[in-house]
Please model this.
Amino acid sequence: MIHKFDKLAISLPTPDGPDANAASCVQELLGGKFGEMSTLMNYTFQSFNFRGRTKLRPYYDLISNIAAEEYSHIELVSATINLLLSGTTEKFDRNTGDDQNATPLAEAVNARNSYHFIASGQTALPVDSMGNPWTGANVFSSGNLKLDLLHNFFLECGARGNKIRVVRGGVHIVAYARALEKLTGADIGKLLPIPDVSNKKFPEAAVHEKKGLHRVMYRWSPEDYRELDQIWNGPHPEDGQELIVKEETPEGASWPELEEEPQLSSPGAIDPAMIKHFAKVL
Model:
């Protein structure tokens, strides 16, 4: 079961201005092959399908716990897309506006992803940067623990390679590397980082690394996943700092308030005359 909180994992900055094409690029982080939809659904199905969980409890706990965090990543990326799309077309309500020849969606013609304006009220969709729908074909759940962990390591490295997804994605790379090391004895940490550039080279990531977030695994359950620390322990492979499991989840931040977009009937207004008519009829 999922215990859902009405918060984002972190606070998001307000964009300098609306940018539909930037929103399309960010869609790759959501619905791309290496996006958050893929990480969530891979780890979720692997946790559903895990055989021998009593014997291999630390590995089950790790995969299940990371799956829970990935849900929060989908929320963050979707919120980012929505902030970038807000205000990209002219606000206009045909029920109250005087100019019935107005073309409030004229700017949408130049946008990279038309579906943002045709099918979603200028909000996020489960698609990649080119508008291709996310697909279950991106899910790998073989039933073989070693193979699934190897795939998850590849998936997280691919995500970082495509988008330099930093800090939390980096935590998951290290987590799956450590799991493979515990399971097989192979020194996977020597491969890191992939690509060969440290998170500390990116100012946006360095802020969080200074807080030590690159070595923290949050426990996303008040009672379960108690054996995480049997895998998530020891020195971080890049800087040698100790890996730690935190009992509390991130404090979180409020969702941004999205303004109405009447030109797209989002969320849509109630017509008093229509209500009066049907009340009389019924």
Observations:
- The two ends are 42 Å apart (CA to CA).
